[in-house]
Amino acid sequence: MKEGQEAIYYGCGRTVEAIDALPQADQIKEAGYEMLYMTGQVDEFSIKTLREYDGKKFLNIRTDEIDLSTEEQKKALAEENEAAADLFAAMKEALGEKVHAVRFTDKLKSHPVCLSTEGGLSMEMEQTLNAMPGRENRFKADVVLELNPDHPVTAKLKEYEGKKVAFFTTNCGMQEPLQAAILDQPNAYYPQPCCPSPYHAFPASLGLEIQAGGDDTEALKAIAAVLKEHNALGRYSTWPSPVNMSIIDVSVEYAKKWIAGEITSKNDGAAIAAMFEEKAPGAIVSNYTNADGQTFDNYYTVLLGAVDFNDYAE
Question: Which residues contact 155 (CB under 8 A, 6 or more apart)?
């Protein structure tokens, strides 16, 4: 081992690659210290039994046992943590029992955050113990969310601390967890799903038994009832009908009217707009104009009105 290495550091994981990618490993490698890679489920239990070798303690890099900072660095870190106390309190409240604490750390180099533990039970030990028959979920490590104070992500957290923030993602699979995550956060807003609809993730995120294809108004009322329970009526919105199904419904009705002779043109923009207005009052229908300024008379963009869930609350 390198001269000055006062402990035997180790990391746990399913593969050597996974351990090597741990954010906490950067500090050890930057210092030039050696580290044990433990991929077996019982490896850490064995190490805990040994405690030390040749006068050097075994220390898990994902615990609070690691301390490579100078006294000056410790003092500066303590001051940063004190200054960010309100931010950490808000984050802890949002995360609830998922974490024991939130704080800055100087362990991180390029990574924005990491999960560490306090006390003698590591996350790997918790996982192994809870996997034993009859012991499911009996053990819980004290997990700490640690942030890199010098990372741009942290700068953004500070910038938006205490402010109202709207969250939007174009990933359909992220809609449900995003809706659920901000439900009880008073400064978090969910303006629209990526595919606006009363049925896009709302049933799953709010625990509702509503099916697509039913009565849209009843679906909106059911959503509003849950949002009201969480004081979130004014923080969520969507479109009054599923955007894709609205286009299909209007297209089918338009085709039927044209076949029946009620509409004499295959492309009647006024009729299309009127049918969308009937389907979803407040709908805006316009001809598409591309980046070169060219407008297409048979290519339409459709914007339905944003739902105010206060209108559906009882």
Answer: none
Q: For residue 217, what are the CA distances in angstroms to 199, 221, 274, 278, 312?
A: 11, 6, 20, 14, 8
**Other C-beta atoms within 10 Å of 249: how many?**
16
pTM of the model: 0.60
The token pair that represents 300 in the structure block: 């339409």
Contacts of 166 (CB under 8 A, 6+ apart): 189, 190, 191
CB atoms within 10 A of CB 124: 21
Which pLDDT tens digit goes with each residue over 109-156?
A: 899 999 999 988 888 888 888 888 877 778 888 999 999 999 999 998
DSSP, residue by residue, 44-101 = HHHHHHH-EETTEEEEETTBTT-----HHHHHHHHHHHHHTHHHHHHHHHHHGGG-SE
273-305 tens-digit pLDDT:
999 998 888 899 999 999 999 999 999 999 998
- As given in the structure block, the two tokens for residue 53 are 């070798």
